[in-house]
Structure formats: C-alpha cells, structure tokens
C-alpha cells in the first residue's frame, strides 16, 4: 500500500526506508524544541514567549484541517486516526515549521504574522505540488515559503537578528553552541537524510560567490563572509536548505541544488536585496518546481496518479 509516508520515503530518503523519515522528523522536532526552550530561557531570543505557542498551534491547526478535508473528499481514513502515536507522528511535520517561523520572524509584539506564516507554511504543501514519479510532492521548503511570503507581503516585519542565538552567552560558549548545532546537523544528514553533498555544495558555492564579488567590486574579502560567522548561518545550512522532502536524493542533483542557491544568493546581494538567504532558496525551489513539470511533460507521462502530503 502506498501511504504518503512510504511514497515520500521512496523518493527522498535513503533506500526508500520510511524509518529514516520518521527518525529524521523526531530528530528535527527534538532539536528545534530544545533550541526554542533554551533560546527563550537562556540564549536571548527576542520574540515573546507566546510566539512559539502561536506558531505551533497555527501550523498544527492547518495540518489537521487540511487532512480532515482531504480525507473526507477522498473517503479515506485520516492519517491522524489510529491512536495517539499516529496523531503525534502526523503533527510532527507541522510542529517543526511552527517553531521555525516563530524563531526566525520578528514582528515586534504582533502575533498575527507568525500565525499567518505558520499556516501558510503548511498550506503551501497542498497548493504547490509537482510530479515526482507517478505521484506529486510539495516542492517548497514549508518554513522558508511561509517566512519569505510573510516578509514580502508585510514589509514592516523583520527577521530575527543573528546575534540573538548567542546573545546571552560569553566566552567558550560562543563556540560551543554553534559547534553543537554543527555536529548535530552533520550527524543527521550523514546518517538519516544523506544530504551532506547538498550542504557542502552550498558552502562551496557561498565561498565562490563571495570571492567573485570581492574580485569584481574590489571589497575586503571579510565582508561577504561575515554571514558565515553566525549560528543563524549554520542553522540555515543544516536545517533549512537540506529539507529532505523538497530536495533531490541524487548526490549530483544535490550539488546542483546547493550551488544554485549560492549563485542566486550572490545575484540578490549584488542587486541589494535584503533577506537574500530566504529568497534565494525560494527561487531555486520555484525553478525546481517548473523543472519537474517540464520533465513530466517532456517524458509524456499520462498524468499524476496520486498525491502525497508529508
């Protein structure tokens, strides 16, 4: 039986093993929950305590409503049915974007934009889908889509400053905390998602675009490399770009994906766009979205046979 989980695992996780997907989801969920708690209690996150609650509640509500409507329209059993364990596993893909948007968006005292970004993150998984094999799969990183759309539609909203990830720590902890993020991310992608080629390609591409900008515009070499010194850059590199459900499993395509994000980021910086990291990832996902449809048409596939929601 082709459940959404097994189909997603087949195309986006090593050996098509659903266990890798479930382990990766729990790993992501645990780390981002721990990071949120420590951030508000110790590290110096500047959003209100209500922000993560609103983000998670909005994302989970959207996930539940969309699944309820889809299961009713297709006359099938909802994925959240079958016990408490099924319910928790069903909500994990919503829990992660809910905390991510609450962590990365800074709307001052307003909670509405966080609810909007979290709900849109989940809705994007249903609205924007492309053919993968005989199925369809969402192609935009949910958190990144919600954040990008929110900062474009509400230009008075900012992104959480990179310094707040280590604002209240000093001394060796300025190195230990980014080191923990780095090690945990490398372990996750080396063992469960196999997305290290993508991460390395993104870093290599980032260095290359920095070198090109330094040469062409005669600027100090340190300037375009400053973003790499923050914990926020590590989070983006290891927990935003290499989303398994929205990136290729093939290592060569991973490299192309990572280099493309870096190239688009460099062009955005040259043209003075703010929030370049988020917009670059969105644009590359958009190009991949168009490319998947183009390949499906070029191969003359008769149509998509089913849909998948991760």
Automatic annotation (TrEMBL):
The chain crosses the membrane at residues 20-43, 49-69, 81-105, 111-128, 140-160, 172-192, 225-242, 251-268, 274-295. Keywords: Membrane, Transmembrane, Transmembrane helix. This is Enediyne biosynthesis protein UnbU. The lineage of its organism: Bacteria, Pseudomonadati, Pseudomonadota, Gammaproteobacteria, Methylococcales.
């Amino acid at each position: 039986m082709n459940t959404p989980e097994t189909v997603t695992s087949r195309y986006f996780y090593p050996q098509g093993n659903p266990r890798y997907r479930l382990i990766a989801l729990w790993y992501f969920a645990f780390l981002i929950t721990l990071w949120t708690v420590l951030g508000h209690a110790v590290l110096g996150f500047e959003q209100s305590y209500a922000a993560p609650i609103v983000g998670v509640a909005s994302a989970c509500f959207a996930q539940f409503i969309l699944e309820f409507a889809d299961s009713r329209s297709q006359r099938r059993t909802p994925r959240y049915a079958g016990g408490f364990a099924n319910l928790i596993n069903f909500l994990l893909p919503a829990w992660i974007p809910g905390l991510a948007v609450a962590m990365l968006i800074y709307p001052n005292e307003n909670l509405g934009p966080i609810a909007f970004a979290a709900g849109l993150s989940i809705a994007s998984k249903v609205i924007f889908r492309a053919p993968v094999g005989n199925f369809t799969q969402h192609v935009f990183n949910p958190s990144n889509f919600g954040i990008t759309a929110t900062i474009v539609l509400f230009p008075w909203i900012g992104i959480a400053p990179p310094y707040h990830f280590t604002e209240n720590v000093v001394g060796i902890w300025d190195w230990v905390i980014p080191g923990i993020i780095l090690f945990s991310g490398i372990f996750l992608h080396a063992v469960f998602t196999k997305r290290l080629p993508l991460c390395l390609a993104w870093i290599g591409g980032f260095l290359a675009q920095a070198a090109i900008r330094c040469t062409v515009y005669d600027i100090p070499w340190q300037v375009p490399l400053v973003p790499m010194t923050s914990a926020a850059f590590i989070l983006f590199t290891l927990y935003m770009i290499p989303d398994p459900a929205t990136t290729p499993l093939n290592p060569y395509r991973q490299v192309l994906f990572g280099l493309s994000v870096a190239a688009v980021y460099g062009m955005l910086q040259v043209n003075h766009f703010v929030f370049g990291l988020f917009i670059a990832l969105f644009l590359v996902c958009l190009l991949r979205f168009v490319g998947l449809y183009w390949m499906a048409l070029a191969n003359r596939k008769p149509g998509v046979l089913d849909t998948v929601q991760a």
